[in-house]
Design goal:
four-stranded antiparallel sheet; 38% helix; 9% strand
Length: 224
């Protein structure tokens, strides 16, 4: 889920547990946005800053008329165009405001996409070191092989989703799987009941991936 300080134009995202950190002052407006939840805006009060605060968002539930089940592979239905463009613009703006989080420190990163990923991991993986105790992960992160297998065998997470919904160039699909595996997405999201949460993770990661290709040049992030 995107968390945006609209007053200061600062962006972050929640982790899989819904935790996040973001800079804010009293009277700032904080916006919560997701393709699966109704948007929420909160005006920051002093008590929000004094302790850990829990914000509740309402899940979007679609009620459909009776339909006939077809044998076609299922495809996700969501308004990804608007969501993706909004997310894309927010990340681009954050890159302008905080270029030190994205710019390679030296030319040696070159073709090593993991080096470039490390430049954006602060944006995606902010941890609450002061307030949260470290908890060993119950599930291991999704590996490159698992990502590759998922898109090769799943009727939901397939090549069509990658190219048409996530807008990943076909010749960069393997590189995108590598990107996602380095992100450390929990393998718990591979469970069928968690597929919509995994989809949202992939939506966010796809936008960052496409921006990296755009900003640093495709020739700098090729995978052997």
């Amino acid at each position: 889920m995107k968390v945006l300080n609209k007053t200061q134009n600062i962006l972050t995202v929640t982790n899989q547990d819904g935790d996040f950190n973001i800079e804010a002052k009293v009277n700032d407006t904080i916006s919560f946005q997701s393709i699966f939840y109704h948007p929420l805006e909160v005006i920051v009060k002093q008590y929000h800053l004094d302790d850990i605060t829990v914000f509740e968002v309402e899940e979007i539930v679609s009620e459909l008329d009776e339909v006939e089940i077809q044998s076609e592979p299922e495809q996700p239905v969501f308004e990804e165009e608007t969501y993706n463009q909004d997310l894309h613009n927010l990340i681009k703006e954050d890159m302008k405001r905080n270029p030190h989080l994205y710019r390679p420190e030296n030319a040696q990163y070159g073709g090593n996409i993991l080096g470039i990923i490390s430049l954006v991991v602060k944006l995606l993986k902010k941890k609450n070191k002061e307030k949260n105790k470290y908890k060993p992960p119950t599930y291991k992160p999704i590996t490159y092989k698992q990502m590759d297998s998922l898109f090769a065998t799943s009727s939901f997470f397939n090549k069509r989703l990658a190219t048409e919904n996530l807008k990943i160039p076909e010749d960069k699909a393997k590189l995108f799987y590598d990107f996602c595996s380095a992100k450390g997405i929990s393998s718990e999201l591979l469970k069928d009941e968690n597929k919509m949460m995994l989809l949202e993770e992939l939506v966010v990661n796809s936008q960052l991936f496409l921006i990296l290709l755009e900003e640093y040049g495709e020739e700098k992030v090729t995978k052997d």
